[in-house]
Amino acid sequence: MPALSAFRGLRRTIVRSSLLPQAMESAVPRAPVVGWQGKGSLQSIDLHAVSLPARTFTGDFYFAQRGPNGLWIALGDVAGKGLSAAVVMAMVQEDLEQRLGECVATNCDPVKTLQRLHKLLLPLLPSNRFVTAVVGHLRDDGTLVIANAGHCAPLVARADGKVESIAPTGPVVGILDNPNWTSLTTILERGETLLLYSDGVVEAKSLDDEEFGLSQVVATLSSTASEGLSAREVSGRLLAGVDRHSCGAREDDLTVVVIRRPSKEIVAARAV
């Protein structure tokens, strides 16, 4: 029944596309949220996400879900564009919602989510299709456990402006018979920011056919470290830079998820 579920998911995507502008901004759960109240030492977190499809349908996907011990997040990209990529995206999105929901309940490692997603997609995807993905768990104490299946390296902006990247910890999803992924553990301290993004950010091209590039993403993220910007402001600055570089043109889907632990606790949650 995976195909049926995928088409149901795609139908929901079509409905959303007909009702919403193509420039969709969303977070937990599907609307920007400032000051999500967690437990323990992670009493506040600022998350903002933006997804901009290059065409009517997008092959990018992301998901975020709160749990009793922090926040589960995922972001990825289906190889290709248009309706065919959107069908796979809908399948991935639906499975992620189920799998990460299970992880929230069982506190499993992000690698298990990638393994289950691979098991679903391997017999279904044609040989020229694959999925890149990042799955992470930001725990109450600021511990970030993350697995990267061939996706753009997530970036962590430290409080001093230094930016660290999280390289792939395994292959892409949906191709190899026996892939192996590992998870990496780091700490996201207060005042630090995690950035997840799709390749539409780094590969955005200027009129001279020059890519925006990872170096500009890193420089933009580093410049925000000392300013105490919100997750929305960080994503806005990055997307403004991409837009200036590309003169507003978009050849690929573009998705950004910014997660920030504010230096000070946010007293109350409020939707924007």
Q: Any key phrases for this structure?
A:
Phosphatase 2c, domain 1; disordered C terminus; alpha+beta; 272 residues; globular; eight-stranded antiparallel beta sheet; 27% strand
Total domain units: 1
Q: Strand portion, in percent? A: 25-35%
Structural class computed from helices and strand pairing: alpha+beta
Shape: globular
**How big is the Rg?**
17 Å
- Which ranges are low-confidence, i.e. pLDDT below 50, for 5 or more consecutive residues? 6-42, 266-272
Report the CATH topology name. Answer: Phosphatase 2c, domain 1
CATH class: Alpha Beta
Major sheet attributes: 8 strands, antiparallel
SSE pattern: HEEEEEHHEEEEEEHHHEE
| Average pLDDT rating | 81
CATH-level-4 superfamily name: PPM-type phosphatase domain
The CATH architecture can be given as 4-Layer Sandwich
User: Count of DSSP helices?
Assistant: 6
Number of strand elements: 13
Proportion of residues in helical segments: 25-40%
Distance between the termini: 38 Å
Short summary of the structure?
The chain is α+β, with helices and mostly antiparallel strands and 272 residues long.
Folded structure, characterized:
The protein has 272 residues and is α+β, with helices and mostly antiparallel strands. The chain has one domain: 4-Layer Sandwich (Phosphatase 2c, domain 1), CATH 3.60.40. The chain is built from six helices and 13 strands. The strands form two sheets. Strands 1, 2, 3, 8, 9, 11, 12 and 13 form an eight-stranded antiparallel beta sheet that branches. It has a five-stranded antiparallel beta sheet with strand order 4-5-6-7-10, covered by helices on one side. Strand 8 and strand 9 form a beta hairpin. Helix 2 crosses helix 3 and helix 5 runs antiparallel to helix 6. The longest helix is centred in the middle third of the chain and has 25 residues. The protein is globular, with a radius of gyration of 17 Å. The C terminus is likely disordered.
